[in-house]
Write a structure and sequence with these properties.
Structural class: alpha/beta
Oligomer: single chain
CATH topology: Rossmann fold
Helix content: 25-40%
Number of strands: 10
Strand content: 15-25%
CATH architecture: 3-Layer(aba) Sandwich
Number of domains: 1
Mean pLDDT: 83
Radius of gyration: 21 Å
Order of helices and strands: HEEHEEEHEEEHEHE
Low-confidence stretches: 4-28
Length: 184
């Protein structure tokens, strides 16, 4: 191979590598931004959901939990740092397994988790369940994050929230698509 061909091939490789890394960085930035937005949503859910008083027997804090791999990084911690809702400080807990959960008020269930089994074990508890996994509300989950026209939206399963004795503010309901478990 001539020197000219080697130089052209080397430059083409560098340009291709740069283009691929730019695309990868852009995708990672978009995903990070998506979870930054979802972290703020989780914080806001604490302001627009009412739990039974028995939900605060183990802790006075409103616990926002993440079950499974944590897609939020530091965004969720930053969103709730120093915040209180109705005299309840907000704290973030991360759980590897469903059995690790003792006191929790809002639980983000990672898409990789076995959702139906998790939801069945949480059924008697007043925990607001949230996910971005397909068919989450159809499976009995309470709030689903979904993307529509490049915007993060929410879908709320009111039957599931009522079964858990949770009251969702009309302010939050106005922003959401309302469904029953059979309609997702």
């Amino acid at each position: 191979m001539s020197v000219l061909k080697k130089t052209i091939a080397h430059r083409y490789f560098k340009v291709s590598l740069l283009a691929c890394s730019t695309i990868l960085f852009s995708a990672q930035t978009q995903i990070a931004r998506e979870y930054q937005i979802k972290a703020v949503f989780l914080f806001n859910f604490a302001q627009f959901v009412e739990w039974p008083t028995t939900s605060f027997q183990e802790t006075n804090a409103i616990v926002i939990g993440v079950l499974g791999d944590d897609p939020f990084g530091t965004y969720l911690d930053e969103a709730v740092r120093g915040e209180e809702v109705n005299g309840h400080p907000l704290v973030v807990q991360r759980y590897r397994h469903i059995n690790d959960i003792k006191a929790c008020h809002i639980l983000f269930i990672n898409a990789a988790e076995t959702r139906q089994q998790v939801l069945a074990s949480l059924k008697p508890k007043s925990i607001l369940t949230v996910s971005d996994a397909d068919n989450f509300t159809k499976q009995g989950g309470m709030i689903l994050f979904f993307t529509e026209n490049k915007k993060t939206r929410i879908r709320i399963n009111l039957n599931a929230t009522k079964d858990a004795n949770l009251t969702i503010s009309s302010k939050l309901l106005r922003l959401a698509e309302i469904v029953g478990p059979q309609k997702n």
